[in-house]
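Researcher: Let's walk through a ligand-bound prediction step by step. First, I give you the protein sequence. Second, the SMILES string for S-adenosylmethionine. Third, you return the three-dimensional complex as structure tokens. Ready?
Model: Ready.
Researcher: Here are steps one and two:
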Amino acid sequence: MYGFQPSESFGPDVAGRYDDSPRGDEGAAADLLAQLAGDGAALEFAIGTGRMALPLAHRGVRVEGIELSRSMVDVLRSKPGGAALNVTVGDMTSVHTGKRYEVVYLVFNTIFNLLTQDDQVRCFENAAGHLTDTGVFLVEAAVPSAWLPTHSYASPERVDLDAVTLDVCTYDPATQILDENHVHISKDEGIRFGPISCRLTWPSELDLMARLAGLRLADRWGGWHRQPYTGKGMHVSTYRRA
Ligand SMILES: C[S@@+](CC[C@H](N)C(=O)[O-])C[C@H]1O[C@@H](n2cnc3c(N)ncnc32)[C@H](O)[C@@H]1O
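Model: Step three, the predicted complex:
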């Protein structure tokens, strides 16, 4: 997507609307993350507005975060309990908090927001560098086939009487980049674009990235309730020191 700037995908407009439609997996995810953390602390890569971190903190886990977008962090800080979370503004491929955690986690397909294989590997290496000896790195992402019925498509995301939202995508198999634009067309608001690019990675490629970072796949589930992984939809994968 010519001219696309990843940092602009989560600017003030998007941050302000980010929590309007919760994804609905927050409780189940926080339960699993709290089990994995035990008495230890957790670090969320790309903590965003705290959608996942705040319910986890409510379960008694000390949660910290790394986040690129100051706008997302501003929204987090405005929420009850948000100001108490320690957040480092920076890039999850390189920033180090100077501490080690029992759980480092990266959810909601956000590994895909890193647009090169090198950056995705650096993210695994940075996660490994934040883990205690017994720590676990959890990644939750879509299985690419779930997103790619064809290479290019436009599908309705929401249809109302006087507004529609379309998901318009092209996919390049050579670079594994999915260019996507959420186009909101409304009688009252006109047209609003929400562009984002993703580099789609299969779980098997993530496993190799983990090995480059000195980690090994520990568990792979099909969801937050530890249901069996079927190769469809999404996966929740955990990695530990090899
Ligand atoms: C889909 S949101 C997920 C936010 C949160 N983890 C959640 O589950 O709601 C993606 C987030 O990743 C952040 N992000 C993208 N690239 C990043 C990077 N290289 N380092 C840190 N954060 C990044 C964006 O700013 C955005 O807040």
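Researcher: And what stands out?
Model: The chain has two domains: 6-143+201-241, 149-198. The helical segments are 12-17, 26-37, 53-58, 70-78, 117-128, 144-147, 203-212.
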